[in-house]
C-alpha cells in the first residue's frame, strides 16, 4: 500500500515536471508581454511530433540509442522557429489587445491541429511554393520605397496569384507521384514514440519501480529550470528580458530593442514547449489533441503559482501534477479503504476526467483565499 | 500656431546649428489637443529649461521627444536629421538620455543592473561591463548599495540612480523631467551640482523641466509653456519676476 503511494507520488511528480516545463514557457511569455498564448499546447504537440519524426529518421542507424537528445534539440528548434513566426506574423500586431490575442492564438491552435492531421508532401509543397512566390515578390517590391502606397494593390494581385499557382503546382506534383506524395504523414490517428532501450525499464525502489523514462523527464525539467534561471539572471539578454518585463516603456527609453526582446522571449518560451512535447511523447501516444490535454493544467500552474514567480510555478506544477495523478489513479481509494465514506468519494473521482474536476474545484477554492497565487508580487514593486 | 506674444524669441546661440529642433509639434491624447504647435531648439553644450504650471504639457513634450507618444503633426530633428520615424530605443541609441518624471527605476533589478542597463544606449556594448568612477564621484551614495533592489531606494536615491543610469549611455542630450520633484532641499542641491558638473565636464546639452527657481536659474535659456503652447522664452539671466510669477509654482 505504501509502495502504491510512493509510486503515485513519483508518477505525479513526473507529470508535474511536464506541466512545469510547459508552464515555464507560458509564464515567461505572459510575464513579458501579457500575451496568453492559446496555441502553446499545440507547440507542445509539435515538439512531440518532431520527436516522432526524429525517432523514425534515426531508426536502424547507430544514432538510435541517443535519438532522444537529437529529438530534444530538434524539437526546441522547430517550435522556437514556429513561435517566432507566430510572434512576427500574428501576435506582434495585437499587443495590448488581450482578447484579440486570445482569439487569434486559439485560431492558430485549431489550424495547427488540422495541419498535423492533413500534412503531406503535397501540402508542404503548396505552402512552400506559396511562401516563395508571395514573400519573394514582397521582398522585391518592398525594395521600392513606396511599398506602403501600393500595398493594397500588391495584396490584391499577389495573394490570389500565389495561392492559385501553389495549388496548381501541388496538384500537378500530386498527379505525377500519386500516393507517395499525397499520403498524409500522420493522419488523425495517434502515433507512438518508443523510448530508446536505456529508457525502458525502471529503478527498483521500496517495492515499486521508478521508470527510467519518468526519471529522465524529471531530470530534463530540472535542467531546463536551472538553465532558464541562469539565462535570465546571468546573460545580457536575460537582463533585458527582466527589464522589459518590469517596465517596457522605460526599457525602450534606455535603448533596449524591445521588439527583439519580445521575439527572442517568444521563441524561447515556444522552444520550452517543444521540450515539453518531447517529454510528453515519452509518457504516451501522441495525437493532434495532445496539446489540448495539457494546456488547461498548464494555465492552472501559471495562475496558481503567481505570475512571474519561478518558485511558485515549481510548487504549483508539482502539486497539481501529483494531485491529478493521485486522485485519478486508484491510489487514494486503496489508501483510504479503512474509512469507507472517504474511500467512496475518492472512488467516484478516480478517473482522469473526474480527477480534473476535483482538482479544478480545489484550485478555485485555493484562489478564493490567495487570489494572487502562491507567491504574489509584493513589496514596493506593486506601487512603484 | 502664431506667436501672439512678443517675448517669444527662438533661442539663438552664436553660430552653431541646433542639436535639437522641435518644429510645430501637435500632440493629442485621444481627441484632446495637448501640444499646440510647439517650437523649440536646444544648442550644443547649452542647458535649456522648460517651465510652466502643472498640466500644461511639459511631460507630454518630453515623451513625444522620446517617441513614447506619437505626434499628429510636426517634426523633431536631432543634429539636423529628423527622428520622427525612429522608435524609442533607436532615439536612445542616437544619444538622448532620458530621466523621466517619477524616475522609473526598474524595481526588481539591483542598482548595479539598473546602471548596466544604461549601457544599452551605447552604439556598441562594451566588453567589460564596468561602472565608471565618474558616476560614483557624482553620486557617491550609489556606490555603497550596488546590490540593493532599485525599488527599495528612497525617492532621492532613485532620482540620483535615474540620472546616473542615463549618463551611463554617454548621451549627447540629457533630458530631465522635474528631477527635484518631492525631494528634500539638501539632495536638490546635490542633484543641481551634479547636473552642473556633468555639463562642465562632458559638454553635453541638457533639456530640463523644472519648478525650482534656483535650479531654473542654472540654465542658459528658458521656454515657458501655457496650455500646450510656448508663450515666452529668453535668456534666464533676464528672467523677470513677471515670468516667474506666471510660470513657476513658487
Ligand atoms: N495618459 C493621459 N491620457 C489623457 N490625458 C493625459 C494623459 N497624460 C496627461 N494627460 C493630460 O495632458 C495634459 C498635460 O500633461 P503633462 O503630464 O504633459 O503635464 P505637465 O506639464 O508635465 O505637468 P506637471 O508639472 O504636473 O508634471 C494634462 O492636462 C493631463 O491631464
Ligand atoms: Mg510633468
Automatic annotation (TrEMBL), chain A:
One CC-aspect GO term: plasma membrane
Family to which the UniProt record says this protein belongs: Belongs to the binding-protein-dependent transport system permease family. LivHM subfamily.
Upper taxonomic lineage: Bacteria, Bacillati, Cyanobacteriota, Cyanophyceae, Leptolyngbyales
Listed Pfam families: BPD_transp_2
BP term (GO), one: amino acid transport
Protein name: Branched-chain amino acid ABC transporter permease
Membrane topology designation: Multi-pass membrane protein
UniProt-listed InterPro entries: ABC_transp_permease (IPR001851), BCAA_transport_permease (IPR052157)
Cell compartments where the protein resides: Cell membrane
TM ranges: 12-36, 43-58, 64-86, 121-141, 153-177, 212-232, 264-287, 299-326, 346-369
GO MF terms, alphabetically ordered: transmembrane transporter activity
Coiled coil: none
Record carries keyword Coiled coil: no
Organism: Myxacorys almedinensis A
UniProt keyword annotations, A-Z: Amino-acid transport, Cell membrane, Membrane, Transmembrane, Transmembrane helix, Transport
